[in-house]
Amino acid sequence: MLNPLQQKLLEMLTWLSKYIESNHLTYYVIGGTFLGAVRHKGFIPWDDDIDIAMPRKDYETLIKLLSKPVDHYVIESPDNCGKDFTYNLAKFYDLDTTMVEYARYKIKRGVAIDIFPLDGLGDTLNEAYKNYKRIDRINVIISMMSCKVRKSRKWWKNAAVMIGRLIPVNIHTLVKIVNERCKEKDFYSSKYVASCMSTYRSREIMERHYWGTPKSYQFENIEVKGPEMADEYLTHLFRNWRELPPVDKRQSAHDFIELDLNKSYLSD
User: Fold this and answer.
1) What are the backbone dihedrals phi and psi of residue 52, each rounded to the nearest 5 degrees, phi first?
2) DSSP, residue by residue, 53-99
3) Which residues contact 178 (CB under 8 A, 6 or more apart)?
4) Are the C-beta atoms of 110 and 97 separated by less than 8 Å?
5) What is the pTM for the complete model shown?
6) Rounded to whole angstroms, how far apart are CA atoms 21 and 58?
7) β pairing state of 98-101 and 256-260
8) Which of 47, 128, 131, 234 has a 20 to 30 Å separation from 6 between CA atoms?
9) Tens of pLDDT along 18-63?
10) DSSP structure class, residue 242
């Protein structure tokens, strides 16, 4: 049985995947969403978010197509966003819902699917790590500036968050810089690629053939596209991905302070 938030996300993914394919664009479900598709044929039971990734050119095309509402959906991205939008990736929103995530800044939007760009990093592993570090350093600062202090987090991480608030630079400037760096190498002409905005950080660096031609996988009552080499991708990202985590680790990483599936965030 899916909970109401999972039901809403599945509804959104159903619409989005059809829209992407109808426009002849490429996408993959990734991370925990893909792990759920392969291991559970749907959501990881305790998970309540969905992530997809697209090669940079397709990612940018989709943003243009959905920069204005279609049906009751819209995409907000660093290139077309409100002043309070501090993410370094795109968000696909349901306009008929309301969600406020637990972060330093109160960003009131709808229930969202995260859309990540896929970028090239180079033709050798050494080159890929070198280029990734240039990107990751900025992503860390963005995270420090936008995160909220949490009691459950290690003290030194909270200290880093507090230091981040003192950095005298506009977060939107950093987001623009990191996206420009990501665009330097093309996804399709690089041996090593990554979803550089992902929280899995350097574990995302992998050979492009792991992604391959998008392959169909069951996800609840629909089919979605995911990396062609499922075992290689999941092993690289999660190692022993077939094993369930300990019971005390089976909890959502998605944290929000307000959720209303029946009220538009635009109504206030």
Assistant:
1) -130, 160
2) EEEHHHHHHHHHHTSS-BTTEEEEBTTB--TT---SSEEEEETT-EE
3) 88, 135, 138, 139, 142, 196, 197
4) yes
5) 0.93
6) 11
7) antiparallel
8) 234
9) 999 999 999 999 999 999 999 999 999 999 999 999 999 999 999 9
10) T
